[in-house]
Amino acid sequence: MERKLVSIQRVDHLEDIPGADSILKARVMGWDVVVKKGDFRVGDACVFFEIDSQLPEGKDWAEFLRPRGFRVKTARLRGVLSQGLALPVSILEGETPPVGTDIREPLGVVKFEPTSPEGSDVAAPFPAEVPKTDEIRLQSALGVLDELRGHDFYVATKLDGTSATYVRMLDGTLVACSRNWALRPSTSRTWQMAEKYNLATVLPPGFAIQGELCGPGIQKNRLGLDALDLFIFSVHDFRTGQYLGHAELLAFCERLGLRMVPVEHVVTGEAARTFDHGLENYLKLAQGLYSGTKNRKEGIVIRPLVERTSPTLGGSRLSFKVINNDFLLKDED
Ligand code: ATP
Ligand code: MN
């Protein structure tokens, strides 16, 4: 599901911040966000900008973020975590659209993207056979928790590298892709992994594997690897349009000699039935270090053991991420 970077939402809760006269702590969807006192009463609609919103220049309502390059980022104000920006609907011209409406475009907001060096290698658009890799943030899609409740599920570590997809076409050709593009065969990191794992022969035609490419020179190499490696998180059968479930994914990786992303917890049976699916609990699980390192992990990705579709996510697979708030506050670029 496309992320709704800016949308009409409701202020569900307001509370005082000890020692602060002019600001309040508000709750919008699953986000805690600091707002100006007097801007809202509980239940009011607001214009909600998620973190990573890059506001336009030349709008009065965006001026206060000029010193921060107009970027909405995780912050701590008076000791309170603030994620996003809630402004009164009076900043909009005309009638207020219904709650949930995506208003990124009319407001001229774009997504902040740290520059990615994939330019010169692009060969073609991303193959239409396979969904691009993406994960929704739990706080923006709290409905997924009810959809997961009662089902066996697992928690994987979110690795902080770069996305790679390899598709073996039915005619046997191997297509290697970055997050958004098919890459021309070269000595690029993405193609090095195709060589290392011999994907042009071992990957069965009709299948795509998707993983995180990690190692020296990629992001901050927070796993502390000595050499590049690929950590698989999805296998997609494009003839059926299905992803493999957890057990099949494990077996598939084992058979092809591939590594999977680290799986931190597999929760089944009674433990799954009684699991605390509260946001707070997930935020705790998202904290901590990459195992064997002193580096904070970026977060976790949660999926049912058996693939399911998610009405909350518009019918795509049930899967979501929870980003480590310590990472957002201290490590994010
Ligand atoms: P946003 O959706 O918040 O705007 P974004 O689209 O840049 O941010 P990321 O925060 O990088 O996305 O999260 C999605 C990406 O996480 C996937 O594309 C994938 O490359 C990567 N990833 C790393 N580890 C995992 C994992 N264990 N499971 C699934 N995806 C993972
Ligand atoms: Mn995304």
Instruction: Classify the fold: give the CATH topology of the largest domain.
Output: D-amino Acid Aminotransferase, Chain A, domain 1
For the sheet with most strands, the description reads: 6 strands, mixed
In this entry the ligands are:
adenosine-5'-triphosphate, manganese (II) ion
Backbone structural class: alpha+beta
**Any idea what the radius of gyration is?**
21 Å
Structure in words:
- The chain has 333 residues and is of the alpha+beta class.
- Helices cover 15% and strands 32% of the residues.
- It contains 8 helices and 25 strands.
- 31% of the residues are buried.
- It is globular.
- It starts with 5 loop residues before the first strand and ends with a helix.
- Strands 14, 15, 17, 18, 19 and 20 form a 6-stranded mixed beta sheet that branches. Strands 12-25-22-13-21 form a 5-stranded mixed beta sheet. Strands 1-5-9 form a 3-stranded antiparallel beta sheet, with no helix packed on it.
- The chain has 2 domains: 6-111, OB fold (Dihydrolipoamide Acetyltransferase, E2P) (Beta Barrel), CATH 2.40.50; 119-330, D-amino Acid Aminotransferase, Chain A, domain 1, CATH 3.30.470.30.
- Manganese (II) ion (MN) binds at residues 3, 134.
